[in-house]
User: What shape does this take?
Amino acid sequence: MSIHITTAMVKQYNANVQLLAQQKRSLFEDKVTKDTINGEESFYDQIAATEATKLTSRHADTNYTNTDHQRRRVTSYPWAWADLIDKADKVRILQDPQGKYTMNAVMALNRAKDDEIIAAATGTSYGGKTGATAYSISDTVAVNLSGSSEGLTTDKILRAKVLLMQHLLDPEEELFFAYRATQMEDLLKYSATDTRITNADYNAIKALVEGAINFKWMGFTWVHSERLTHVVSTDITTCFAWAKSGILLAAAEEINTQVDRMPGKNQSVQVWAGMDIGATRLAETHVIPVYCDESP
Assistant: This one.
């Protein structure tokens, strides 16, 4: 419960209850496949690509294709956010914080969606007949692609793009690249010595650094998130390139909010928000982890 609400009382210089800087919306939700499920788990059946047979003679015997059936499992988990607004505190502040608490709750759940998607993108996925078969990604862009450990470079971006293209994705498929701010710093530093970087490329990188929204460069829509996996002991961040069809966000229940008076808490107001979601990777070939060293 909010033991810190006294900082918002009238005696403070700022009478308005303000939301501190934070990520407000989900950055990844509209960049993956979305579906609604019923129950704790759901299975997604898939059919692998096949090849046609050329007929070289009349009345030839029929050649049957063995269609490969696969499936993926997604598990949905409930999430919740709750806090209390003390009745006595409400009369001591000039602005009712109830609406801001609700906004804060929704923002927290939106960030949780991103965490689920990020974890599913490069983590272990499960499928098979019973959903117990583990799948991991084999195609990755190594942290030492050039021979020594380094941050994000144009070579790494090109390698990720080539790996996606080699899997014959639909040319109309949307491609994305997730990065942290440090990776944009890397690109700006390397662009000064990389003769392949044109003025247009340099301006594109600068636009990313300046916070351009839905910016496209090198075939990717770039997504900035500081929530990507970063291993402190090695200082390596896992960026990743992906196709929209490669990751699934499934919702058993979308975000919903509720405000109640709590008689057992001396009529304090409880602000509650919750959701029930899960995410999984649908195809290993549609997600390419790009490992970047953030060491100075």
The helical segments are 87-90, 98-122, 154-166, 181-191, 199-209. The two ends are 41 Å apart (CA to CA). The longest helix spans residues 98-122. The CA atoms of residues 58 and 64 lie 17 Å apart.
